[in-house]
Structure formats: structure tokens, C-alpha cells
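Thread: quick sanity check before group meeting

JM: Hey all, I'm pulling together slides for Thursday and realized we never actually wrote out the predicted structure for the chain we discussed last week. Dropping the sequence here so it's in one place. If anyone has concerns about the input, flag it before I start.
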Amino acid sequence: MNSALVSCAKWGLVSLVLGGLLASVAQGQTGAKVFTNIDDNNAGWGSCGSTSCAGGEPAADAFWIAQFQTSPSKDGNSTQFYVSASQPYSDVLFWNKLGPQDWATHFTWDFWIYLEDASQSAENLEYDLFQYEGGVEYMFGTQCSYSGGYWDVWNQSTHHWIPTALPCKKFTSKVWHHIVWQFHRTSDGLMHFDSLALDGVQHAMNYSEPSGPLPSGWTHNLGVQWQLDTGSRALTLSEWVDSVKLTIQ
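JM (edit): ok, ran it. Output follows.
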């Protein structure tokens, strides 16, 4: 494996430097923050295709991140995730870290995706938000399981996917799709998967899964990530993301 919108008058734009990352953040009187256009961040990116990282075996032959793609794009600058695998079950994880935000307990993650035709042969498309805080790893893992036909959520304690009751149809290729996930965490260590909006259609989820201990040597952080699982055949595919926004409270 791994909301309300408020009027602009209530927000003041500030620049926040987090570990070398210059992020655009809107901060309101309620204490909420909004990270906008995360796909355009000039730092904080990483990727891996190892078994221990992404869960795939063997590793993909090639994978990379390419920012500021003008086509396809929603706002003129998208980010492309590319995977090429000559062997089956080669999974690759792509992430962006935003720095520690230990105070935040509620999260709204809003982004767009665009997939090429080859994605129809993928096994899973994964979308995760993570927070490392107080020795706990909150991994709000979600995936559209093409192989299983349902949306799954992640049990960090047992490291297993839990199928939900919400079917997941394969995304139409060469069309932009809008995804909005809402999560929150509670003091008992539970991760709550509250709702999922797909192309404007809201789905109440109401699933709760346990978090897990933070691995030794890991530090406090917050971030978002995407994973491409190639499945049972050799596959080369790309996914583009755009207008990635994260609201935390």
C-alpha cells in the first residue's frame, strides 16, 4: 500500500516555508488552513517502487513525476505520474509532504485526476492522506479497487484493505474526474472515513479504522499521496492530477 468553503473575505493569504517547501496557505479566523495547488509545489515530492514501500513485486522498470504539464490540465499546470513495468504487480507510490501539522484533526482533500486508456488494465488506483503525530501513523488510505469492484479503506493496525459497500467503477479515460475525501481522527486513535464525493455525487462512508504506531526514526509530518498498481500484466500508464487542495482544521 501503503467543508465548508468560506468567502475570500474571511481568509488571508500567507506564505509558509516548511522544510524548504514554499506552499500557498489560506488561514482563517477559525484556525483552519487550506493548502492550494499542491500539485504545483516546488518541493516535498518523492516516489518509490520497492516492495517495502509500495507493496509491489518486482519493482517497476521506470517511474517518474513530471510537474507543470499544460496538457491535459484543468488550470494550466498538472502533475503527471508515470509507471512502466515489464513484469506484473509492479506498484509505485508518489507523495508530497507538507510538514508537521500536529494540531489538525479534520481533513478535506479535493483534487482532479485524468487517466489514459491503459489505466483500464490497472489493478488499483490509490489515494491516501497521511499524518504522523505523537508517535502514531494515521494513514487515511483509500483505493478504487479495479480488481475487487469496490472502494477500499485502510486498516493501519493490521495493514489490510477493508472493502466498503460503495462500488467503484473504472474511471472513464481521457476525462477529468473530481474526487473529494473527508476524514477526521479522534483521541482514541481511530481514523474516520467520513465521505467521498465523486464527480459531484456525495457518498456518506462512515467507516472507522484503527491507526498504528509510527515507525522508529519517522518524524511528524502531513502529506498526500497517489499510488498506481499495475496488476497482473506488463503495463505502462500515466495519471495526471490537478488543482490539488487540502483543508485542515
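AS: nice. The chain has one helix and 18 strands. Helices lie at 51-54.
JM: adding both to the slides.
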